[in-house]
Amino acid sequence: xxxxxxxLTVVLCAFVSLTCEESLPIYEQPQNVLxxxxxxxxxLADRIARPGRQVAHxxxxxxNIHDEVFQDSVNIRGTMRIWWxxxxxxxxxxxxxxxxxxxxxxxxxxxMLLIPGQQFTMDTYWNLKSDDSLYLPTEMNFARxxxxxxxxxxxxxxxxxxxIEVSLNVFDRIGYVLAPPKEFTFIGRVCIDCGIxxxxxxxxxxxx
Length: 208
Description:
Shape: elongated
CATH topology: Immunoglobulin-like
Number of helices: 1
CATH class: Mainly Beta
Oligomer: single chain
Strand content: 35-45%
């Protein structure tokens, strides 16, 4: 009788265990959780970044495109590669970290939670220099300088097209996400005469 009871107990436990295993769904890593896009590229005004020291402001937006809340540990790192369409050999690599994250309060105890549709932004600036420290407006077309006046004592170059490519890691479980390439047009600006006008002051050594 004891052996029979023991046998029935073993069978019952095996049945319950099998039933429980069958009732639990297999966890699948969610796909297409995060989308990344370059949402803004703006050429800063002369009074903020004067001719000869121009700057572009670039904003990258990430969004939870999953239909559920997503939370995971974060390790924000990535690269932004900006290359000149007319001269592909001229490019700049900008490294993105958590310091570029605008909404840093989203990261708590090393984790970030995003509800469906929630966004975060990464903010950075480019000083128009290439990886080899060349100030790229010096290679733009300013031919017939005095015929290119676009503001008081300022001449403009031909419009030039640049392309931004971003690869960004935010959540550990997702890994790197690529943003669609973003084209933008930049116009070089240069002072025509040294020391004339509010945005063309003489350099420290004077005009010479």
